[in-house]
Amino acid sequence: MVSEAADRADEATGRRGDATDRPDDAGDATDRPDDAGDGGDAGSPLVDRWIALDRGWQALVLGLGIVGVHPVVELLGRMERLGIPTV
Length: 87
Prior knowledge:
Low-confidence stretches: none
Largest sheet: none
Order of helices and strands: HHH
């Protein structure tokens, strides 16, 4: 903690610390596979670019992909019901 007063306040309230109290090398949910020091050799450039994206951008891309695939699946379902041959 920052000071002895803060330590005493934590003891009085029963607080055990927060995320900033853990050591830097403890690892957390934001660690990426290339953080392990393996040289970042993940394989293809596409994989490297995907891993480099922030989790928010990954979620956005996945969501847009799902929204983009949905109309295709709907169209194939309608074609099947109408008896139109599909691939």
